[in-house]
Design goal:
It is built from 2 helices and 5 strands; from the N terminus they run βββββαα. It is an alpha+beta fold.
């Protein structure tokens, strides 16, 4: 299961239900995907085919919606 927690334009932010315990968020776009850590701080974990400008935009969106993403993580994983 990979619940969508946020959509902004063509960016879909989601979690994989059976993945590592360190808090992170995946982002899917028509052009590629990325994974960002949200613990201990927001940082790019991996990028697949996204240009740097998209990665920067996604990081900005994660920072803007960080509380919402963390709350969704805690609800989903019971932390």
């Amino acid at each position: 299961m990979s619940p969508t927690i946020l959509r902004v334009g063509s960016y879909r932010f989601f979690f994989f239900s059976r993945e590592e315990a360190r808090a992170h968020v995946h982002v899917d776009t028509p052009d590629g995907e990325a994974k960002f850590w949200i613990e201990p701080e927001v940082a790019l974990a991996r990028n697949h085919k996204l240009p740097d400008r998209d990665v920067a935009t996604i990081e900005e969106l994660i920072r803007k919606h960080e509380r919402e993403i963390r709350d969704a993580w805690n609800r989903h994983f019971g932390s």
